[in-house]
Structure formats: C-alpha cells, structure tokens
Amino acid sequence: MLFDVFARVRCRLDILNDILLQRYHCKHLPSRAEDVIVDDLRGKTCVVTGPTSGIGVTTARALVKRGARVVLACRTPSKAEALVERWTKEAAAVGTAPPDCAVMALDLDSLASVEAFAKAFQQREKRLDVLINNAGIFDMSGAYVRTSDGREQHLQANFLAPALLTMTLLNALRKTGAETGDARVVFVSSKLHELCTGLNLSDMDFKRSSYSSQAAYASSKLAEVLFVKALDARLRAKAPGTRALVLHPGNIVTGVVRTLPMWLQSLYKILFERILLTADQGARCSLYCATRTEAVASATIGPYFTSECEERTPSKYALVEGEAEKLWRYTLKELGLEDDII
Ligand SMILES: NC(=O)c1ccc[n+]([C@@H]2O[C@H](COP(=O)([O-])OP(=O)(O)OC[C@H]3O[C@@H](n4cnc5c(N)ncnc54)[C@H](OP(=O)(O)O)[C@@H]3O)[C@@H](O)[C@H]2O)c1
C-alpha cells in the first residue's frame, strides 16, 4: 500500500520534471520542425491523422515542405482544405512548389469511417511510406462519452481506431517496405501512459471500473505503447523494411485543452506558454521517428521515443512479460481481425 502511494508520487514528480525541464533537455534540437528531416522526401507518401490542429498541423506542414505527398486524414475536411489553401499561397509567395496534399475524411469515433478511409486510400493512392497516427483526444471535462460504435471515446479514438487504420493500411506499408527497405508506422502516445498501472483487458471501456478521463487517456496511451511492441515484433519477423515506433511528443500548447471552459483554456495558455513546447517543437519527435534513419537503425523492438528524439524505456507496465501479446489478441478480437493478418 505504502509502496503504491510512493510509486504514484514518484510517477507524478517524474511527469512534472518532464514538463518543467523539457525545453532544456531538447535544446540540442532544431527549433523549426522541418529541420529535423534531413532527407528529400519527394516521391514518398505520408498519411497524417489529426492534421487540423496542434502538432498534427506542424507535422504535416514539415513533411510537405520537404517534398512529400501528404494525405491529410481528418474529421473536418473544410479545416484541412483551408490549410492547403494557406500553404499554397505561402509557397507561391516564396516561389516554391505548391503543396502535394490530398484531403480525406477520417473520423476515429467510427470504425466504419476508418474502413471507408482505408478503402478510398487504396483506390486513390499509389503507395504508402509513412503513417503517423497523431490524432487523439484528452477530454478534460471528465464526462464519460461513448462513440457511435458504443465504446469509451479515449479507448476508440486514441487506440482502437488507429490500430484498425494501421492494420487496414499494413499491406500498402509492407509493399513499400519490401521495395525500398523503409516504411514506418508511428504512434503518437504520451508520457501520461505512465499513469496507467496496467491495462484491464476485461474492462478497457471502464464499464465496471471507476472512471476518470485521465485514467481512460492513460490507459489508451499505454495500449498504444504495448500494441507497437507486438506489431513491431511481427514486422521485424515477417515484413523486413517496415517498422512501428511510438513516442511522447513533449508537453505542448495545443487544442488538447479544448474541453475546458474558455477561461481555463486562457489561463492554461498564460501560465504554460513559457514552459511548454510550441506546436512546431512538438512535431519534432514524430518527424524524427517518421523519417530519420537513426530512429530505426539501432532501435529495440517497438521503440519508445521522447521529445528529445531519443529512445527511452517506457513505463514498467509496458515492459511486463506477455502484456503486449495479450493486448494484441484483445485488439484483433475487438476489431474482428484474423490472427494471420500479419
Ligand atoms: N499537447 C500535448 O501536450 C500532448 C502531450 C502528449 C501527447 N499528445 C498527443 O499528441 C497528439 C496530438 O495532440 P494535440 O496536442 O496536437 O491535440 P489537438 O490540438 O487537440 O489536435 C488533435 C487532432 O486530432 C483530431 N481528432 C480528434 N479526435 C478525432 C477523431 N475522433 N477523429 C479524427 N480526428 C480526430 C483533431 O481534429 P479536429 O481538428 O477536427 O478537432 C485534431 O486535428 C494526440 O494523440 C495527443 O494525445 C499531446
């Protein structure tokens, strides 16, 4: 009991330390997101989910600037279209090539929407080099919300739907991996996965256990870390050239606080703007994992990176023997996928 309290206090202090010192720890990194990318990405196709707010915008923008074709997988296409229009004007103003983007609808609250996206993607696009599962929610209002599929919203939007998206696009990624030796799927998790002291696979929906949105968020983010471990192990055995990585982007001023009352959102920005990372800085780790050779060259299975763009050990609950495999089986069952999908 005392040990548990001590472990929880230590975990929170560690998270606080990460928030307060992240700028210092990241000072070796370029401040512009696109400068993390060293290769010319012309000829590559990347999918970025949640590209219409926060670090999704800066991630997609940096990939576009480096010449990649970027599919903006979003739930509000009008927002993504406005971004493409802005980027087109910016490119024209400096005389560079117009952005090579496609806007496609994807609502993670609906598994049917994920399947429709994957089908449309396969019909329209010729290849897939990188999938960045960036979209996510942290409903700070604390309300228990169910998706249209009847699942707790953090579980579905942060974990199950991105897992389905990954599985349905896996063949496209594997094809590129086999041809070029480099295809990647990147999951944007969070250091808050450390607040989850183990997944409750018999109640991932919090139907029977006591609910808080923080607990649901942490559980969904730990699920991402474990899922990547199971997926990457399979990719390394069966799909040479294709890898899965997971990361904590840092603590960033974004729209993630949108569920708080307006006055609290303003207070959050005033209080934290000087401590937290900018959206541009918050995109660096996603871009590092998605594009840099070093990220995969010496990485362990299902590597977990942090805002410093360095591989770190995730929470001890992500390292428990057999947990990743149990989650893998749970996920396939929940999504109605066959064991031999990979
Ligand atoms: N900000 C941080 O400090 C922080 C820290 C650790 C991890 N993260 C993770 O970083 C990722 C990006 O977060 P952010 O901070 O940039 O948040 P954000 O500004 O709120 O952006 C989230 C993006 O996800 C999209 N999205 C949300 N629910 C969706 C759904 N059901 N279907 C499709 N798209 C959906 C949003 O679309 P709309 O624009 O249409 O709303 C938006 O584009 C998340 O996975 C988050 O958990 C953030």
Keywords:
SDR_fam; single chain; 342 residues; oxidoreductase activity; NAD(P)-bd_dom_sf; globular; eight-stranded mixed β-sheet; alpha/beta; binds NADP nicotinamide-adenine-dinucleotide phosphate; Rossmann fold
Architecture overview:
- A hairpin with a 3-residue loop joins strand 7 and strand 8 (310-312).
- The model has no long low-confidence stretch (mean pLDDT 95).
- By secondary structure, this protein is α/β, with parallel strands linked by helices.
- It contains 12 helices and 8 strands.
- Helix 4 runs parallel beside helix 5 (153-168), helix 5 (153-168) runs parallel beside helix 7 and helix 7 (213-238) crosses helix 12.
- Bound molecules: NADP nicotinamide-adenine-dinucleotide phosphate.
- NADP nicotinamide-adenine-dinucleotide phosphate is lined by residues 50, 52-56, 75-76, 79, 106-109, 134-138, 157, 188, 190, 248-249, 251-252, 254-256, 258.
- Pfam families: adh_short (PF00106).
- GO terms for molecular function: oxidoreductase activity.
- Keywords: Oxidoreductase.
What's this model, at a glance?
InterPro entries: NAD(P)-bd_dom_sf (IPR036291), SDR_fam (IPR002347). The protein has helices at residues 2-25, 54-65, 77-94, 111-124, 153-168, 170-180, 213-238, 262-272, 279-282, 284-291, 293-297, 323-335, and strands at 45-49, 69-74, 101-105, 130-133, 183-188, 242-247, 304-306, 310-312.
The low-pLDDT segments are none
Structural category is alpha/beta
Task: Give the strand line-up of the largest sheet.
Answer: 3-2-1-4-5-6-7-8
The count of strands amounts to 8
The biggest sheet, with number of strands, parallel, antiparallel or mixed sense and barrel status, is: 8 strands, mixed
What are the distinct ligands in this entry? NADP nicotinamide-adenine-dinucleotide phosphate
Could you tell me the radius of gyration in angstroms? 19 Å
GO molecular function: oxidoreductase activity
InterPro entries: NAD(P)-bd_dom_sf, SDR_fam
Keywords: Oxidoreductase
Pfam family, one: adh_short
